[in-house]
Design goal:
The complex is a heterotrimer of chains A (about 260), B (about 250) and C (about 325). Chain A is mostly helical and about 260 residues long. Chain A contains 13 helices and no strands. Chain B is globular and about 60 Å long. Classes of the chains: A mainly alpha (about 260), B mainly alpha (about 250), C alpha/beta (about 325). At the A-B interface, α2, α3, α5, α10 and α11 of A face α2, α4, α8 and α9 of B.
């Protein structure tokens, strides 16, 4: 474990010097958290046409203005699932290929470090900040939404315990899945650009949730969260194991000289 | 002409370098197809909103996808340049009399060829999924996509040459990509958004390109949005090309 | 038990054999030179011996551990200077070393002491807080050597430690190697610099895909060529060529640059007879000396032979 911490510390020292990376990593969540507030301040039934969505049975008993708020507030919740996927992808994509390109990987591989230790450290250093930032942004969003919501029942309709549970449990798992995928791509490619480009694919499955929720096909309740947490955590752990298995020390060295 | 010959030489050289890693190109080519295949079931199950019917979806979606393909792949182009800059590959150009514009265009041309192949592949897959084809419109549309590509590549090169750090280029690409995607109507149906957000979307230059592309796909050649889209995109591309070339001159000075 | 013991170590990349059937033993405390041209398979050999890549066939023990079974222990027991320094540009010199000290599990006090010790030894102590990105090539190489030594490994692999350095930096690096040798460490030194290997190493392996020769530098020089005697005269040398050729024990004689060059069958006993014969014939001998072959000539000869042998093998 000490070695994992040592690698994390080294990664941290390096990341601190990446001013642009730090700035954009912080800017993105600010934008994503700010966007809904800007939108909600002007959104009402007279300016927003929800079409058939407003007629979904789950909205019975709400006023048209309330329905618009519920739909928008709820849609933006999905952004908090986007963050743990998107934010760490740049760091993850850079993790191995960066050391390949700067030729620092060989001494690291020659040191008494197991592949799992290297990958765990590199994954954690990408996933941890993303998780913390997302949690913080969610806290800001859920508190801020109290002031924007036109009625108490809009708030309780959107900010359910299920969503709180989802953010607490899903976010770290999603971050680890995104990172493990990024690390796999990073280890298998010799071109930093390809790595960055390919890791963006992690956001695609999220759009499934986005549209499914919009269509009323998917309602995220406690049962859904409870039922998916274990598979997600297993998927996260499994991706890391797969990343370790796919990490071919020899191939990485030989392809790079 | 000398410039054209130099562009060709740089293009062939960078293509040869890229072909040493064919997997990279193949995976890159398949990327937009993967997006489309992941999206398709989504679009099928979309409830009939005010905006469009599920049958319409592929026709609305494909032109937008084609426009977004350019930034998704091209905004990261500069990263390769950072690596070349550090390995001293570009230093060798310093001593040659090759025009800096030729270097930018030659390198961009390689990425544009890959982009074109991606676009063709995307349209082909979309066609099997029910896309209505207007051949002339699509050919012109692919040309429009390449102009967007040139715009994105030039910007990415300029970032790369100024910042000389692949993480910085990747970070900027990410930050630009997210609002471009969110505000292009591709991910968030803009019809759901209030005036406020629609105005914000109007500032997204690619929104005009998407409109022009949709008009082209349906063969509405007399629609003024096509001309507007072309003019705006081309103007931006020329400007960014100028910026990239200037950055090149400075980097190699 | 030797520090390193290789038996038939072979590595192929697809069809191409990079290292072929390498067998040798290196004693504890020995400085072992591994000499070969670029692309001869030196780095591949170092990578195999340090457990970075697996041999296609053959076996090897390093520091008493079996390669392929105890790689983690081998990595802990050896220090490696890889072909490229591989330092983190965005970290300071000190941070680079402290990171590796932690990976080798030195406790934090020992780590700080070792880092200070080696930074001073490499004359980098004053620059310890500077980013490695600002360092010259020589400084990087010294820092990378310090990194390889932090955990006091008994076996040190140095892959081309002076390649690409300016003469002054190269000298500092050689001094470091000499002092390591004084500490009784086993050193595996690859190089294509003959002079360096000649100066530093106890034994030298000349290598090009296969082991061409393995011996002490002195034996390598003596073993390959006959000793040649160079005789200078007051006047021209040509007239005396016939005289010496007539002698039964002279194997070869020629004139190079007004100097008579002679090979004898048994140099030690026949040299006085040769000189006597010349003097009796009326020659005014001014100077007699033995030609010393440089290791370079030995090396070039071996590499050429090796190449021809390889070519023959391929053709057959």
């Amino acid at each position: 474990m000490r070695k994992v911490l040592a690698v994390m510390h080294k990664e941290w020292l390096e990341l601190r010097r990446e001013r642009w990376l730090v700035a954009t990593t912080l800017l993105m969540p600010v934008l994503l958290t700010g966007l809904p507030f800007g939108l909600l301040s002007t959104a009402s039934a007279s300016t927003t046409n929800l079409g058939p969505i407003a007629d979904l049975p789950m909205f019975q008993g709400f006023t048209p203005d309330e329905i618009v708020q519920i739909v928008l507030l709820r849609q933006f919740l999905v952004l908090f699932l986007l963050m743990p996927l998107y934010i760490p992808s740049t760091i993850a994509a850079h993790s191995i290929v960066g050391e390949k390109v700067s030729r620092t990987l060989e001494p690291l591989l020659a040191a008494p470090l197991r592949t799992g230790e290297i990958l765990l450290a590199k994954s954690l250093i990408a996933a941890l900040p993303a998780t913390l930032i997302t949690w913080l942004c969610y806290a800001i969003y859920s508190i801020g939404a109290r002031f924007v919501a036109i009625s108490g029942r809009v708030y309780t309709e959107v900010f359910t315990q299920a969503w709180l549970l989802a953010v607490i449990l899903w976010v770290p798992a999603l971050a680890m899945i995104s990172v493990a995928l990024g690390v796999i791509i990073s280890a298998r490619t010799s071109d930093p650009r390809t790595a960055q480009q390919l890791t963006k694919i992690v956001v695609v499955p999220l759009l499934l949730i986005f549209f499914a929720q919009l269509a009323g096909v998917l309602i995220i309740d406690t049962i859904v969260v409870a039922g998916t947490v274990v598979p997600l955590v297993l998927l996260a752990a499994g991706s890391l194991v797969v990343a370790t298995r796919l990490f071919d020390r020899e191939r990485i060295l030989i392809r790079w000289n | 002409m000398k410039l054209l010959r130099e562009i060709w030489i740089i293009f062939i050289h960078s293509l040869r370098v890229a072909l040493r890693n064919p997997m990279t190109i193949i995976v890159g080519l398949l990327q937009p197809v993967t997006w489309l295949l992941l999206f398709a079931p989504l679009l099928k199950n979309l409830p009939a909103t005010a905006a469009f019917s599920p049958e319409e979806a592929i026709n609305i979606f494909t032109p937008g996808m084609l426009v977004m393909l350019a930034p998704i792949t091209s905004l990261f182009s500069g990263i390769g340049l950072v690596v070349e800059l550090r390995n001293g590959v570009l230093d060798r150009l310093r001593v040659t009399p090759v025009s800096r514009l030729a270097v930018v265009l030659g390198k961009a041309l390689r990425d544009l060829v890959v982009l074109l192949l991606q676009g063709v592949l995307l349209v082909a897959v979309a066609w099997t999924m029910g896309l209505r084809i207007h051949l002339a419109g699509i050919l012109v549309g692919l040309g429009l996509m390449m102009i967007v590509g040139l715009l994105m590549i030039s910007c990415s090169y300029a970032f790369a040459l100024i910042l000389r750090n692949e993480n910085a280029v990747a970070s900027i690409a990410n930050v630009l990509l997210l609002p471009l995607l969110l505000l292009s109507g591709l991910i968030l149906p803009l019809e759901l958004a209030p005036r406020w957000m629609q105005i914000a979307a109007d500032f997204n230059p690619l929104a005009y390109t998407v409109e022009a592309m949709r008009a082209l796909f349906t063969g509405r050649f007399d629609d003024t949005v096509i001309l507007n889209g072309f003019l705006l995109t081309t103007a931006l591309a020329v400007f960014s090309l100028f910026w990239a070339t200037r950055s090149f001159r400075r980097a190699l000075a | 038990m030797p520090a390193i013991s290789a038996r038939g170590l072979t590595r192929a990349f697809g069809e191409r054999v990079a290292v072929d059937n390498l067998t040798f033993d290196i004693a504890h405390g020995e400085v072992f030179g591994f000499l070969g041209p670029n692309g001869a398979g030196k780095t591949t050999t170092v990578r195999m011996l340090t457990g970075l890549i697996a041999p296609t066939s053959g076996a090897c023990t390093v520091a008493g551990y079996e390669l392929g079974f105890d790689n983690q222990r081998i990595r802990r027991a050896v220090g490696v200077l890889t072909e490229t320094p591989g330092l983190y540009d965005k970290l300071s010199a000190e941070q680079n070393l402290l990171f590796y000290a932690a990976i080798y599990e030195l406790d934090s006090r020992t780590a700080r002491e070792q880092v200070q010790h080696y930074l001073r030894m490499m004359d980098l102590w004053d620059r310890r807080e500077h980013l490695v990105g600002t360092f010259s090539k020589g400084m990087r190489q010294k820092l990378a050597i310090a990194r390889a030594l932090l955990h006091n490994p008994q076996i040190v692999f140095l892959d081309e430690p002076t390649a690409g350095l300016d003469p002054e930096a190269a000298n500092v690096v050689r001094d470091v190697i000499r002092s390591l040798r004084g500490e009784g460490r086993t050193i595996f030194l690859t190089s294509h610099n003959l002079h360096e290997v000649d100066q530093l190493c106890d034994r030298v392996a000349i290598f090009r895909e296969r082991l061409l020769r393995l011996d002490t530098p002195a034996n390598l020089r003596a073993g390959l060529f006959d000793t040649q005697h160079l005789i200078e005269f007051a006047g021209a040398a040509e007239p005396w060529l016939a005289t010496v050729r007539a002698l039964p024990f002279v194997r070869e004689a020629s004139v190079e640059d007004r100097v008579l060059v002679i090979s004898l069958q048994e140099p030690a006993s026949q040299k006085p007879a040769l000189i006597r014969a010349l003097v009796e014939a009326g020659a005014e001998v001014q100077n007699v000396q033995d030609r010393q072959y440089s290791l370079e000539e030995v090396y070039l000869q071996l590499i050429r032979d090796g190449a021809t042998a390889g070519l023959k093998k391929e053709m057959s």
